[in-house]
Amino acid sequence: MRRLARSAVSGVVAVLFLSACGGTEEPEPARVTAALQCDETLSPEAARALESVLGTKRFRPAGSGGLERVAGELAEDYTKFPRWTQGRSLCRVDHPGNTDGIRITVRLRREEGRLWDRHAADLHPYAMGAEALAGPQGARLVVSCVSPQFQGSDKRPARVQSSLTFRRSELPDTVPIREANLTILHSATLAVVRKLGCAEDAGLEAEPVFKALPE
Questions:
Q1: Of the candidates 160, 175, 196, which has an alpha carbon nearest to the alpha carbon of residue 41?
Q2: Separation of alpha carbons 118 and 125, rounded Å
Q3: Is the pLDDT of residue 142 over 80?
């Protein structure tokens, strides 16, 4: 009986010791801040812009791995599709208390013609990258990329188009709103072109510079 009692006590002590050791591990914090959205591709300025357009400083927990995945998908798409590719999802950012949110997608754009030849009335052209449009419902940005990931792009640069779209937006069509949306998209696009190894960051400045074009 004494031997059984000693065994039971030893077992309890071992469990308590293991529990104490395991209890020192801190749980991974939830990825709910603006800076952690979109696979941490957002600059401090872009993170503030995201908080502004969605009206919150906390978001639904973000996933990770989108940047690596999108870069790989674009490189693979370049070898398969001669004229166009579907949008590859970089990230989705959701407001925690309602249905507001944005999505950023990236694709290769092979077709000719300029974006603003057929853009919606609430999108306005900007001098950024090869082409840029911004409005209250989102933004579009096209850059020309020369990269080892895209064979032959040294002779004909690959055109990479990124898009920011709202699930639902009642934002006014003002210059600050347009530039906030383009700030978010610029930061995410810059991270993508750097991941792809585009020469000279595909013509993007390290920080967005806004110059509206005549419409």
A1: 196
A2: 11
A3: yes
Contact present, 178 and 128 (Cβ < 8 Å): no
Cβ burial of 82 (10 Å; 0-12, 13-18, 19+) is exposed
CB 43 within 8 A of CB 72: no
| Exposure letters 16-29 (e unless 16+ CB within 10 A, then b) | eeeeeeeeeeeeee
Cα separation, 169 vs 101, whole angstroms: 8
pLDDT above 80 (res 93): yes
| Alpha-carbon gap, residue 196 to 199, rounded angstroms | 9
Phi, psi of 109 (to 5 degrees): -115, 105
Higher-scoring residue by pLDDT: 97, 151: 151
Six-digit token string for 95: 């407001």
DSSP letter string over 92-139? EEE-SSSS-EEEEEEEEB-S-S-GGGS--TT-EEESSSSEEEEETTEE
Taking the alpha carbons at both ends of the chain, their separation in whole angstroms is: 92
- Of 11-15, 51-55, 199-203, the least confident: 11-15
State the number of CA atoms in the 13 A half-sphere of 204 facing the CB. Answer: 30
H or E, element range at 140: strand 138-145
- Residue-wise over 144-170: b if at least 16 C-beta within 10 A, else e? bbbbebbeebeeebbbbbbbbbbeebe
Alpha helices per DSSP H over the chain? 2-22, 44-54, 66-80, 175-196
